[in-house]
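INFO batch 0412 | record 1 of 1 | parsing
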Amino acid sequence: MTKKRQQHGFSLTETLMAVGTLAIGMTFIGGTFLTGIYFATLSTERTVAAVASEEAFAKMQIFGLDVDDPNLKTSEFVPYEDLTTLPAKETFYPSTSGDSDRQYSWSALCRRVVDVNDGPDGAATKRGELIQCVVFISRETGAHSSYRKRQSGSIWPQLAQTDLPCPVRVNIAQNSGMTDQVLVKDAVSGDAVDERTFVAQGSILVDNATGGIYRVLERDKTQPEKVTLDRAWDGGDLTASDGGWVWVVPPPVAGGRIPCIAVYQKIIRFPRP
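INFO prediction complete | emitting C-alpha cells
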C-alpha cells in the first residue's frame, strides 16, 4: 500500500494573523514617513524664512521711506507699500533674474519709534527716525490663488483681492476672564466675507499697537470667533467698546493652508534726506 505524502501549510487563522501584523507594521512605517516629510518641510521653510527676512530688511533700507510721511505713526502700523514705491518683483524670494516661478514672498509693516537726540546747543533735535519694521514671510498656496487685503483711504476697511499674501488688519476683543483668549470680530459685516475665518490654528498675529507677536494654538469649533493664544495677551488695550486690532495673513480666498510661515521684526533707522 502506497502512503500519500501529507503536505503541511498555514491555516486560515495563521494567515489572517500574519496579514494583520504586516498591515499594522506598514501603518506605523507609513505614519513615520509622513511625519518625517512634515518636519523636513517645516525645517526647510523656517530656514528659507530667516534668509528671506534678512533680504527684506536689506531691501527696505535700499528703497527707504519718507520718515516725515503723515501716515507713519507711533500708535499703529502701516503697510510699507503705502510709504514708498516698491516694484512687486522686489518682494519675491529668491531675488533671481528671469521669470522663474518663485514660491515665497514678503510683505512689511512699519511703525514710528520716537528718536530724540540732544543737539550741540543742548536743544532736542531729531537726526533721523527709528522705525519698527515687521516682515511677514509667506508661501504661495497655488499658481492662481487670490488673497485678501484692506483698501486704504476713504473706503477703508473694505476688502479687496490681491495676487500675493499680505497682512490684513483684523478687529479683536478680549475674552472676559481669559487672558490668553481673544474674540475675532467681523469689521465689515455686510460684505459676505466672514473675517473670523482669517484667523485659524497656527496663524501668527501681530499687535497693531505694540508689535507683539502671538501664535494661535486653537480656534474653538463651536465658537469660531474665539481663539486661544500661545501666551497671555499683554499688548494694546482690548477692553474698549471697539476692541483692538491685530495683523494676520489670511488664507486664500478659495480656502486652503495658511500662507504665512514666519514673522520677523527689526528696528531700522531711516535717515532724513
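INFO post-check: The first strand starts at residue 78 and ends at 79.
INFO record closed
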